[in-house]
């Protein structure tokens, strides 16, 4: 009851909107499942990239600000995003990144899993990981990316912290995760509530400085719950620990709460309901600009202020 169901989505910051759209749809093969605007800044897009239907656990979202400065990873931040890919697919991705001049590292191994680190067009660090557990999810295929190499969805996310103790307590005592592995100063936590998008890695770096939350960095990480009842039950657990947490917020496609965990990372809890097919059909997801209710009367003004997107 009231379980955290792994990762729901991750939100990051980008620069140029067209460049961001092209990278995630054309280079990685994701679907733009929702094109809307920032709730607090309607002159800025909010893109949601994921699988074909926008399944929780596959969604990476962006706020693209055209003139934003370059960010820098540091303590108190999500510093890496890991995606699951089919076994044997990393050679394809390495060759693809070389062909497209995408910055990437050499093939490596961690916790018995092969992975390939790379950066997006704004410098955001991501990993493609051949998961050692069975991942039955179907990645989104395109003309250039076939099913046997397509990215399936989140595998893990890495938080860099000066001290992991208080953050680990939230994961284990509130969210129901368990520590399952350790490699030097990297600690792996996993929930058995879901099969995938179930892992959080905590990297402990006592001397690490704080970063700059701007282009190429992650803004927050959202954990998944089934519905609003579970959402509010988790809220009570956070409140009893003396942490400040928001009231329930309607984000149109999910209901959410926000709080900053003791290590400094902004956490969100988000519901599965109502999902992305509320203002568009599944077939038409991401095909047109959707606006929150409070901005619908301003559509003409907002559309004139947003950069034109070639899709």
Compact summary:
The protein is an alpha+beta fold and 311 residues long.
What does this protein look like?
By secondary structure, the chain is of the alpha+beta class. The chain has one domain (7-305): 2,3-Dihydroxybiphenyl 1,2-Dioxygenase, domain 1, CATH 3.10.180.10. The chain is built from 5 helices and 16 strands. The chain has helices at 17-27, 90-99, 165-174, 228-240, 299-305, and strands spanning 7-14, 31-38, 41-50, 59-64, 77-85, 108-110, 113-119, 125-130, 153-161, 178-183, 186-190, 199-204, 218-225, 249-250, 254-260, 266-274. The strands form 2 sheets. An 8-stranded mixed beta sheet has the order 2-3-4-1-13-16-15-14. An 8-stranded mixed beta sheet has the order 6-7-8-5-9-12-11-10, covered by helices on one side. The protein is globular, with a radius of gyration of 19 Å. The mean pLDDT is 97.
Largest sheet geometry: 8 strands, mixed
Q: What's the structural domain tally? A: 1
List low-confidence stretches.
none
Please tally the helical runs, counting DSSP H or I stretches of 4 or more residues: 5
- The strands making up the biggest β-sheet line up spatially as 2-3-4-1-13-16-15-14
What portion of the residues fall into strands of 2 or more residues? 35-45%
The CATH class label is Alpha Beta
N-to-C SSE series?
A: EHEEEEHEEEEHEEEEHEEEH
Helix fraction by DSSP (H/I, runs of at least 4): 10-25%
CATH superfamily: 2,3-Dihydroxybiphenyl 1,2-Dioxygenase, domain 1
Q: Architecture, according to CATH?
A: Roll
Return the average pLDDT rounded to an integer.
Answer: 97
Task: Please give the radius of gyration in angstroms.
Answer: 19 Å
Structural class, please?
alpha+beta
Shape: globular
How far apart, in Å, are the first and last alpha carbons?
42 Å
What's the CATH topology label? 2,3-Dihydroxybiphenyl 1,2-Dioxygenase, domain 1
How many strand elements? 16
